[in-house]
Design brief:
About 30% of the residues lie in helices and about 10% in strands. By secondary structure, the chain is α/β, with parallel strands linked by helices. Helix 2 (about 25-45) runs antiparallel to helix 3 and helix 3 packs antiparallel against helix 4 (about 70-85). InterPro entries: Trimer_LpxA-like_sf (IPR011004).
Length: about 200
Amino acid sequence: MPKSADVLAARDLAGTDSGGVAAISWAETRAALRADRAHWARRMPGPVRLRRGYQAIWLYRMSRYAHENGWRMAAWLLWIVNGWLTGSDIPPSTRIAGGMFLPHPYGTIIAGAVGRDAAFGFQASIGGLYKTPDRDVGGGPGLPRLGDDVVLEPASIVLGAVLIGDRARVGPRCLVLKDIEPDTDLAPTDWRALPGRGVAS
């Protein structure tokens, strides 16, 4: 019996369902892709399957399916193809629930766990730091976890074992190193002029 999209979203973040079965079924993968297309239709009308960002998510879903069903070589080959074709870096070990919106995949890195109906702007990325992982908040050791309906504006970056609450919005060029509460809007700081070379401050 196919599982619902809600169960899929929970498993994508938790890693396993209540029965302890880690493998993702083909029905669950198709449910996630349907949720992806629905989110795209809400934000960007037109032929979804021809969009480079949707192709990046589709290839990620295939690599994730292969990874969780034990076909690790095929999973990482699909990851390489995805990077070459779309310019994005989404490892098959990343967990992304249904409804992902990624209009401009080039330069985007997604390593961790992402909730339902997330939206990533141009070169928005999440990942770890070059240090020993200190904790696991659900995205993997030292990796971030994003809740549902989170929006990352262009060039925003979330690094480390950081928990981003549901419906949070991270503004452009923001660097997030601490947890963010749900329903929070994070705005970037204003640019400030620095003294030029050889000029006294």
